[in-house]
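Batch job 17 of 40 flagged for manual review because the log was empty.
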Amino acid sequence: MNTPSAVKPRKKKDTLPERRSDPPGYWPRDILEAYTRYRGPYTIENAETVLEEESVELYNGWLVWQEMTDPIERRVVATLQGMLDISARKAGFGQGLPDQLECLLSDGSVVKPDASLISWARLQNAVQPYGPRNRPTLIGGPELVIEVRSPSNRRAQERRKRRLYFANNVQTVWDVDADRQLIWVYHAAAPMAPQQYGVEDELDCTPFLPSWRRVADIFAEQASAEAVAGEVAQAWRAEGRDEGISETLRAVLPLLVQGRFGTPLPAQAIARLAQCPLPQLQRLQTAVQTSTSLEAWLQVLAFDPTQA
């Protein structure tokens, strides 16, 4: 049987079976299988490198691969994260965070929500250095967690994960079905009585944020910058139409680009956006959907990443 010392960094170019330092089939297939086994050998301390570099989570001492979502699911997550981040900052609540946020739970599990909303207070008080390299880790969970269903997910697996979240100070979980364009909202106070939202509805984000977004905008194939910015765009418009639109686009374009191409914009490219006039910003918004790669989009921005 393998010991914790068998955990080794994975090479990005390797295929899944070659990545595992354990024998084939040694790792559990999902959360449910992890909890049917005896306590496994892994902890955040001895598996820190793997947890940081790979799409894995830790349950009952076992490492479990996260199935990568398809481009449509990633687009929906990016749109939701962008909407939450802009609204939370405007309301003074906190910020929206993308995937790979490591949450260390009370039973030693390490989970990574697809996206989340967290308050400034929790970021300040609950993020602590942890592990051999003292990496910043959220102790417990954020206030709101977003999980997108994948085809392999079993409902029992999702229920088990929600129980873990609610046992670690998560107040709300959004269960998102990108294929059916439905969102189920679970609250810690009533974990077995979710509210269902479809494309005809407006998604409620209380008690964290005021009246929020149309579900149709969340699942839109080409969500506009104004749809993502929501009430923030309305406020900027009230301050001056052209400048309001420009500020909306400058704030949202980095999020739309990351959702489209899966890569954050370089800081220098974001700084360049601040110098773009409204007509160029509008061209850049259109180019998010028409460009075949991030490099092609950066050419519209006239930014050379090799010079960053």
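Reviewer: the log was empty due to a logging misconfiguration, but the result itself is present. Residues 1-20 have pLDDT under 50 and may be disordered. Unflagging and moving on to job 18.
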